[in-house]
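Annex B. Sample input.
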Amino acid sequence: MFGIALALLSALAFGLSQILVRKNLDKSNFVYISLTVTIIGNIILWPLALTFTNLSTINPEGLLLFIVAGLLAPGIARLFYFKGMETAGISANASIFATYPLYTSIVAILLLGEALTAENWIGLVCVVAGVIFVGRNINNGSTQTKYTSKKGFIVPMLGSFAIAFSQIVRKEGLNIYNQPLLGVAVGYTTALIVYLLVMAFSKDSRTTRFSRQDLQMFWKPGVGIAAGWLLCFLALSQEMVSIVVPILQTELLFILFFAYIFLRKLEKFSFKLVASAFLIVAGVILISIN
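Annex B, continued. Sample output.
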């Protein structure tokens, strides 16, 4: 029961953090937001990783896999997530990102030869249907923001691909070197390097500079996202993965709930979008059933 509560708190922390990001999205850009969130995460996670990791048993192969996983997510995936808020809106973006277990399952079937149950297949159908409905909602303008494009769902979909592949790589890394705190800290540092490189070569950085204002606006979601990661790992240490993972997907429902309360002036909502989100969550839960 304690593990379930931790998983719900993790989903809540992630959901609230995205709301805080969206409130100030117009005042910065997705690269600077990603950079700020990742700087804060590194400050929080590395002291914990160094405290609770036995550094005398470091496995180079495991560290390499953590780096690759970190390059994919949070690295690439976080950039796509915050860019997706601009192109699709927070609710549709979160809905599409929540589908990453679908791609993980497909890769597991094709590359690892894993078999799916009837419940898993029903879940896959639900997720695909939910994504189609979300895409139609974006295209018909019922959920558009001033940034939304008709192809806005492509960015979050690419981000969900990155998360799916990172999960597979991260799982292999943990199988070799079971140090999750160090793994997430290494991933955060890899992501930080990615964002610094993107910022160095970005045209936006030549016209607008990363400033103290970015830190002031986005340090709170940075703390929230880092807390979400920590609560997630604590939940996994207390409860089975098959229980924790579906509960974490309720992040999407928290986002919809808080967005409706706090972001109604910035975002447009429709019954179809909310129904699509619930369909995706139900599908992900079914996919996660062993």
